[in-house]
Amino acid sequence: MVLLGVYLTNFTIGSKLSTWDYDVVVYLGTLPKIKNHNIKVQVMRAFGEGAARCGVRWLVDDNLQNRKVYNTRLAVILGWVGMSYSGPHIYFRDAIIHQQDLTGGKVMSIDGSCFKFHHKHENMWLRYSLDNVFWNSGNYANKNSSDKHWNMIKNSLSLVETSWSNDGDNILICLQRDNGWNAKGFDQEAWLKKQIKKIKNLTNEPIKVRAHPGDLNRDRTKTKHDWSWVNEYDNVELIDSINVTLHQSMKTARCAVFYNSSSSVLSVLKGIPTFVSEESAVTWDVANHNIKNILDPLMPDRTQWFNDLSQAHWTLEQSQAGDIYRHFEQYLPT
Q1: Do 76 and 114 touch, CB atoms closer than 8 A?
Q2: Which one of 2.40.160, 3.10.129, 3.40.50, 3.30.420 gives the CATH number of domain 4-142+313-331?
Q3: Is the pLDDT confidence value at 169 over 90?
Q4: Which of residues 182 and 8 earns the better pLDDT score?
Q5: Whole-prediction pTM value?
Q6: Which candidate among 3, 128, 226, 282 keeps its CA 20 to 30 Å from the CA of 96?
Q7: Counting Cβ atoms within 10 Å, is residue 148 exposed (0-12), middle (13-18) or buried (19+)?
Q8: Can you tell me the distance from the alpha carbon of 313 to that of 323, in angstroms, rounded to the nearest whole number?
Q9: What is the distance between the alpha carbons of residues 32 and 39, in angstroms, rounded to a whole number?
Q10: How far apart are CA 304 and CA 14, in angstroms?
Q11: Among the listed residues 18, 29, 75, 31, the one whose alpha carbon sits nearest the alpha carbon of residue 51
Q12: Cβ 82 vs Cβ 88: under 8 Å
C-alpha cells in the first residue's frame, strides 16, 4: 500500500513488540468526519472513557491533520476495509490494521448492529470484535454465551422470537451493497441470476427481489444499480425498497434468500426459513446453504445462536463503564 509510509511509526518490520506506548488507542481518524455530536464519535470516545476507568494507558486520537499510528496493544477503529476503497480515513484503517499485524497488537472493530432493523440511538447495540469483522473469523469473545445479553436486547428493542414456519406465498431474495466489506467483491448480479434460475428449476412459486436501501441514490428516488431486468422473468417481481420496509417485505415470505447480509437476522427472528450463500454470514449456523432445500428447508434450534449473537453486541453505557475492554482484555498481548 503506497500510503502506509505516511502513517506508520518507526518499528522493525516483522518484529513483535514486548513493550507498548499505550494499552488502548482509539482512532477517530478512521471516521470520514469528526463532529462531537455525531453518534459515531460518541461511541468511539465512550470506549476511551471505559479504558480510563480500567486504569490502563489510553489515548483518543482525533488529529485528522496528522494521522499517526501508535504502538499500542489495542487499536480501536470504526468499521473495516473492503476489497476496493477510497478516502484518507479508509487508507488510515488499512495502515492501522497493517501495523497491528506486524507488531503483534490487536485491532478492535466497531461495526453496525445485526438488530439495526429495530434501532434507535437511545437503545443502540453495536458489534465489537478483534482481528476482523467477519463472523466466521473475527473474535467476538462470544462462544457458548449465556442468555444475559439476549434478554437485555429483547427487552430494550421489544423483540419477539417467532417459531419457525414454512407458510407464506413467495420466496424473498434480499440484495446487499456491492461495495460493503461483507460482499468481499462478489458479482451480485451474477449471483442473483443464479439464485433465480436455481429456484425456478425447483418451484413455480412467486419470487420477490428486494434491493438494498443503501443502494439508493442521494435523493432516495431510485437505486444506483438498475435491477429492472428482474421483472423480465416470469413470476419474479422487483420490490419497491424505497417505500416498502424490510419488515413489510417479509410478511408474506415463505423463505428468505441472502448472500451474507446481516438482514438475514430478521428472517431468522421471524421464523422464516433462511438461506445464505457465504459462510461469513452471521446466520450461517441457523440457515440453509443449498437452494435445493427450498421446498423442505432446515429449521434448526436457534437458542444458543441468539445467545452468541447477542453477546457480540454492546451498548454505549457498557463501553463507558469499561465492560467491553474487560471482556476482551484476556485476548490482548502482554
Answers
A1: no
A2: 3.40.50
A3: yes
A4: 182
A5: 0.89
A6: 282
A7: exposed
A8: 12
A9: 13
A10: 39
A11: 75
A12: no
Q: Please list the residue range(s) of the chain that carry CATH number 3.40.50.2000.
A: 170-301
The cell numbers describing 279, all together, are: 459462510
pLDDT at residue 90 greater than cutoff 80: yes
**Could you write out the DSSP letters of every residue in 29-76?**
GGSS---TT-HHHHHHHHHHHHHHHTT--EEEE--STT-----EEEEE
Are 250 and 272 spatial neighbours (Cβ–Cβ below 8 Å)? Answer: yes
Topology at the third CATH level for domain 170-301: Rossmann fold (3.40.50)
Q: Which residue has the higher pLDDT, 267 or 244?
A: 267
In DSSP terms, which residues pair with 73 in a beta bridge? none
Cell 428516488, residue located: 221
State how far the Cα of 103 lies from the Cα of 15, in Å rounded to an integer.
6
C-alpha cell at 30: 478512521
| Residue corresponding to grid cell 473469523 | 137
pLDDT value for 253: 97
* CA–CA dist 100, 107 (Å, integer): 7
74 has a pLDDT exceeding 60: yes
Residue recorded with cell 494521522: 67
Grid coordinates belonging to 165: 414456519
Q: In sequence order, what are the residues at sequence separation of 6 or more whose Cβ sits closer than 8 angstroms to the Cβ of residue 206? A: 169, 170, 171, 235, 236, 237
Q: What is the pLDDT of residue 217?
A: 55
DSSP 280: T
Distance CA 149, CA 116 (A): 16
